[in-house]
Amino acid sequence: MKVDAIDKKLLEELVEDGRASYVELSEKVGISRVAVKDRIKNLKDKGIIEKFTVVINSEKFGKTVSAFFEVDVEPYRFQEVAQNLADHPNVASIYQMTGPSTLHMHVLVEDFMKLENFINSELYSVQGITRVESSVILKRFKSRTGYKL
């Protein structure tokens, strides 16, 4: 779907501050408050804006360890395992990847002991997982919320 320059600017402003009022947005984008409201509704109706949410700083919230996992799964258990892991409170995101039934998972925990417990007690106990590879994040430079149009 195409967006024009005004919609793009509006989206950029919303990425920067999703709580900005229609009045504030209209001043920054150069159109009326009513036009801003209509355009945001249109962007939502088209599915370009999926939802408005809050971005929580996981470290300040107490989740100081962030790790990515590549998890290979038996193909006939793929949906079951993916849903099981997606429902876990420490799993921030999970994606199906190309390759032999592979999941890419981002996990946030309080400390390394909790990460070890997650791996040994929660992850390795899931039937259908055939391989797990993990990487701990040392420093974040950019995340999805940092996406610029």
UniProtKB/TrEMBL annotation:
Tell me which UniProt keywords the record has, alphabetically.
DNA-binding, Transcription, Transcription regulation
Q: CDD domains given for it?
A: HTH_ARSR (cd00090)
Which SUPFAM superfamilies is this protein grouped with? Dimeric alpha+beta barrel, Winged helix' DNA-binding domain
Please provide, in alphabetical order, the Gene Ontology terms of the cellular component aspect for this entry: cytosol
> What Pfam families does UniProt report for this protein, alphabetically?
AsnC_trans_reg (PF01037), HTH_24 (PF13412)
Matches recorded under InterPro entries: ArsR-like_HTH, AsnC-type_HTH_dom, Dimeric_a/b-barrel, Tscrpt_reg_AsnC-like, Tscrpt_reg_AsnC/Lrp_C, Tscrpt_reg_HTH_AsnC-type_CS, WH-like_DNA-bd_sf, WH_DNA-bd_sf
What is this protein's record name?
Transcriptional regulator, AsnC family
